[in-house]
Amino acid sequence: MEVTQLIEQFQSKADNVEPIGATIKFKVDDHVVLIDGTGDKNVISSDDKEADCTISTSLDSLLKLQNGDLNPMMAVMSGKVKISGDMSLAMKLQSLI
């Protein structure tokens, strides 16, 4: 899967939920996906900007999270997902993943 596919997946889900009111950056292997929910809608891009919350993971772990094959809490506790910044924003991601 390429970063363009990741962005398309996030955008299709982000279009159906209210703006998150913050910025969240995903670092997936060597790619970046930025969710900017500070405006009227959530905007997804590959911009590598500062974010209120940064989530680092592998593509494999992200796909397992999306498919429900990996519990988010266990992923964090086992180090498969690392979160920095505002941890409460990570809780808002359920609807976007």
Which characteristics define this entry?
97 residues; alpha+beta; 4 helices; 26% strand; five-stranded mixed sheet; Nonspecific Lipid-transfer Protein, Chain A; 5 strands; 33% helix
Stated plainly, the CATH topology is called Nonspecific Lipid-transfer Protein, Chain A
- CATH first level: which class? Alpha Beta
Q: Tell me the distance between the termini.
A: 15 Å
| Largest sheet: spatial strand order | 3-2-1-4-5
Ranges where pLDDT stays below 50 over 5 or more residues in a row are none
Summarize the helix and strand pattern as letters.
HEEEEHHEH
What structural class do helix, strand and pairing data support? Answer: alpha+beta
- β-strand percent reads 25-35%
Q: Explain this structure to me?
A:
The chain has helices at residues 3-14, 59-67, 72-77, 87-91; strands at residues 23-28, 31-36, 43-45, 53-57, 81-85. It is an alpha+beta fold and 97 residues long. It has a single domain (3-86), classed as SCP2 sterol-binding domain (Nonspecific Lipid-transfer Protein, Chain A, 2-Layer Sandwich). It has a five-stranded mixed beta sheet. The longest helix has 12 residues, at 3-14. The chain is globular. The model has no long low-confidence stretch (mean pLDDT 89).
